[in-house]
Amino acid sequence: MNQTERNLLMLLEKPYEDVSRPRGRDRVGYDLTTAKPLRVTTRVSGPVNWVTVPERPDLTVQSLGRATTIRKGGVFSFFVQQHRRAARDLCQLFMKSKDAEDLMQIAAWCKDRVNEGLFNYAFCFTIVHRKDLRSMRLPTVVEMFPNKFVPMEALTKAQVEVNRAPLDQKEPVIIDHGPDFATTTIKAEHRVSYWREDYGLNSHHWHWHLVFPIDMGVNRDRKGELFFFMHSQMLARYDMERLSVGLNRVVKYDNWRAPIDDGYFSKLTVNNSGRAWGTRQDDTVMQDFRRNDFGLDFFTVAEMEQWRSRLLDAIHQGFMVNREGNRVPLSDDVTSGKRGIDILGDAFEADADLSVNSQFYGDLHNLLHVAISFSHDPDFAHKEEVGVMGESATAMRDPVFYRLHRFVDDVFQQYKLTLPPYSMDDLSLPGVVVERAGIRQGDQTDILVTGWSNREFEASRGIDFAAEMSVLLRLQHIDHLPFNYHIMVNNQTGADKQVTVRIFLAPRKNERGDDMSFMDQRLLWAEMDKFTVSLKSGSNHIERMSKDSSITNPNEFTFRDLEQGRSSDPGTPENAEFDFCGCGWPQHLLVPRGKPEGMAYQLFVMITDFEKDKVEQTASDRRCANGVSFCGILDGKYPDKRPMGFPFDRRPPPRVMDSELTKVADLARLDNILLHNITVRFTDEILQK
Ligand code: CUO
């Protein structure tokens, strides 16, 4: 990273401090004195590397458009259309900059004039979506906004330690956090707090919505479908965690007049001045939205119910109706044009630019987030802040997130169940036999081991502790020991063959402890990996490392990594290839927790014909090595022609090879599919990796 890029990146640090405050290892401060800053520069001690930002007569309050409509210090919520419009204006201003230096000057000028969350969002959006800045990496959102991940209590403790430390202390102040969650064991839902409140899970969700924004003029390949698929997969994984701690699978929230059983009190703050997120008592009922502080028009639960009916009508009638009153058929059986699942996803999430008729189908999923997040104070009577459901970096902490998204998924699934089952031609691959498959972890076979690990983040990059020393947050999180898949495949086609290997994992037993039917187990299958291999004729031994998974992102950069150029220097051709890293499921959440005594899982390995799966990309399309199943390819097409979640996204065919199909094992009678039992054992110890 060159100095200009470094100076640019530093603007993401200390979001709540004046732009003139020194930041980063190099103590960079931005001097806008010639550009008439908004306030007098705060006095700072110690040397500062001043970056002079020249006067920019071209920048006026008008340049900011609607970006100033969000109050500073408050929440920036992408679920609110007015906030998205503010973001669009600021992103447009940033996107128009000529180069990195120009962007740095514009951004430094804007920094203290707009809402902090909005600023960082627009800034990150620009880095992700501008081709000339692809070599830059984003630091983890945990370091930008520690207050969205760690309770204020822990951060206050850090401040006390900093104040006590000698001024010349060189060692960092370390604050341990976790396992310590927002609930106690009195609440059954507490048992999955370790997962809901995981930093990686929440930063993944923030990052995913940054890469797939709505109403921002971003129309990426199969965006609506990916909204469905990625969230559906998160639910499959959540349900696996629930089953591992003796909880039933999550129940959809679809009676919006009934109380929401579980409340949520996040203990987090929305900014550094200690303003808390709104909280929700147990048994709160969602209300009509009638607040005047959020720039959002009033809306009612009845309107949302109407949008839901229209979406369900469309699904069951097989078409939507566009603004001109014409029918838009919903079908995935297309060779060109948009798939039904994409059309539905765009109208449901919703993206007003892409929805076939946003007036008619509304903004259902987004406004459900909003209505739930204000259910504790729907008319602003108590002047309470929005709840965590209103922000993508915090929403997944709340148990109601999963109940809401189970409803969203249920609507998508209703559509999927209208589609015909896959044919034998879709499912089989003549001449290719999966003979054996299994897992090796150390010297163990077919046993995966989970436990805890620690990860350190620098809190002083997001919060100004007014001290020279670094302040590290050490977060404990669930993790697993790395492992390898071993798959033996016999290629009897008589020639080399390019194939796609698809690996899924699901629990073997349901809540009752019974083996599951195909339909009972269908939504529990989590994609573990998907990759292409060239089979030679005869026997093949495929070995694949867990860290190479197609869903995960192994590169979560801290500010320090980026400053030091660690694993992030785009100077080498290999790294230039692997732009767009940063999106993807956290590596440490790849394996579900399992049980101390071991939990029975099934590994599903399927081999399909790459000829039928492949998607032509243009030579210039950049790809990241990882996270592709959840994040796609930035400038290119989603690299698998099959519907996402194939073959579990549809109802199964009633018969396979002349016998009834009731269980997944019946499908595995096909030669190209193998089902294999494995065990996941949770150790409740720090893992020695
Ligand atoms: Cu990701 Cu509702 O879409 O949170």
UniProtKB/TrEMBL annotation:
What the entry lists under PANTHER family is as follows:
LARVAL STORAGE PROTEIN/PHENOLOXIDASE (PTHR11511), PHENOLOXIDASE 2-RELATED (PTHR11511:SF4)
InterPro entries per UniProt: Di-copper_centre_dom_sf, Hemocyanin/hexamerin, Hemocyanin/hexamerin_mid_dom, Hemocyanin_C, Hemocyanin_C_sf, Hemocyanin_N, Hemocyanin_N_sf, Ig_E-set
Tell me which SUPFAM superfamilies the record gives: Di-copper centre-containing domain, E set domains, Hemocyanin, N-terminal domain
Q: What is this protein called?
A: Tyrosinase copper-binding domain-containing protein
A matching Pfam family = Hemocyanin_M
Keyword set, alphabetical order = Copper, Disulfide bond, Metal-binding, Secreted
Q: Which GO terms describe its cellular component?
A: extracellular region
| Molecular function per GO | metal ion binding; oxidoreductase activity
UniProt domain Tyrosinase copper-binding: residue ranges: 398-409
Which interval of the chain is the signal sequence?
none
Q: Where is this protein found? A: Secreted
